[in-house]
Amino acid sequence: MIPYRDENEAQRRSIVTATFIGINIFTWLVVQGAGADFPLAKSVCELGLIPGELTASLPVGSRFPVGPGLVCLTDPGRQLSHLMTSMFLHGSWMHLLGNMWFLWLFGNNIEDSMGRLRFVVFYLLTGLAAAFGQIVTNPESIIPMVGASGAISGVMGAYLILYPRVKVYVLVPIFIFFTSIALPAWVMLGYWFFIQLASGLLSSGEMGGVAFWAHVGGFVAGVVLIKFFAREEYVQAHRAHRWRPHRLMREW
To answer: Domain ranges in the chain?
Structure first.
């Protein structure tokens, strides 16, 4: 299923969401060379998060391939800064575009629910939770983690709590065609979370370079943290089973 819009209109400009998207695109184009072999490999090697490096379970100088004819060696130290830098790196154009689309689709409403400064903190915290979710399940992994999907999973978990009945329109493949259907957010997001959880259980956390436990960790963090970050009127609306903020806004 590919979500392409929802019926949840934001009431304020989503400045932070747009800024995060801009930072990710800038990093991809300038730091990662828009996917060119050497700058992409260099960025993943020098700024990606390696679980075994963070846990100090890998010997210094451990080698792993990062591109055609290119090998990266782990450095001394735990490289704590990579917990942050890895959130703004991506492995391909499709990786970047997919993540940014999900961030825009769901992030604008979550930013709306808590305000800009709180959203910055929330986003970064769920990104950290996602990283630790992957590290706990694969503490000796030498595979670098990159991407915004962990933090975006947190945004999606928060969306599930605040807006479970809002309709999300998705494209569903049927043979060689796509059809559009409207689903409650809880169905679409619940299905997505189930796929991540099942894939993590079946693949020991990594398959095809996808860190499923990071997605699970970020999503769970979003479900928990939204209760502390959302403004009280949104929490009250959730408790009263009023799911759409534009209805709430008309009653103020």
So the answer is: 2-250
* Closest-CA residue to 92 (of 100, 81, 83): 100
Nearest residue to 211 (alpha-carbon basis) of 152, 153, 150:
150
Quick check: 138 and 204 in contact, CB under 8 A? Answer: yes
Residue 3 CB partners (closer than 8 Å, separation 6+): 102, 105, 168, 169, 170, 188
**Number of other CB atoms surrounding residue 242 within 10 Å:** 14
| Separation between Cα atoms, residue 7 and residue 188, nearest integer Å | 14
Mean pLDDT by 10 residues, the chain (252 residues): 87 93 97 94 93 91 87 89 95 95 95 94 97 91 92 97 93 85 94 92 62 93 94 67 46 38
The amino acid at 102: F
CATH number 1.20.1540.10 given to 2-250: yes
DSSP string, 145-159: B--SHHHHHHHHHHH
Look up residue 86 and give its DSSP letter. G
Tell me the three state secondary structure of residue 188. helix
